[in-house]
Amino acid sequence: KRVREIQKEKSANYKSRVKAQRAEAGLSKGQKLRNPVEAWPSELVFFGRVTNMLRGLCSQLDISYPYLKTMAEAAKETIKASVPLDEHADGLVHHSANTVSTNLQRRILNILPQIEREGHMVGLQLCVLKDG
């Protein structure tokens, strides 16, 4: 008998939560609540599912494979291919930022060529503000 009371209480709590969610979303009685998964971009959901599937597959096969590194390389190539050649940057630093006035700026300008040589840079935009 106690089990039924607990189940009824859980059911009542669930119904009240759903009712509150409906009210918060401004839904009338006949409308359904949107599934949280549907609220996310489908590409992001797909990416999460694929990542979890690959992690599980690697775990089941007891192998250590850097699948995120493989995915990152494919993503970099996709980003590069998506930008028309005439829109590619003609240098590492925009011509308006050629005046070096701080030690931080000097350090950043010195490290950029190395980052590019090592292939870690697909696109970079950096803005540092001081005092506002």
Plain-language structure description:
The chain is an all-alpha fold and 132 residues long. It is built from five helices and no strands. The radius of gyration is 26 Å and the shape is elongated.
List keywords for this structure.
132 residues, 60% helix, mainly alpha, 5 helices
**Morphology:** elongated
Arithmetic mean pLDDT: 82
The number of helices is 5
Task: Compute the separation of the termini in Å.
Answer: 66 Å
List the helices and strands and how they pair.
Elements: H1 2-25, H2 36-39, H3 42-61, H4 67-82, H5 103-117
Overview in brief:
The protein contains 5 helices and no strands. The model has no long low-confidence stretch (mean pLDDT 82).
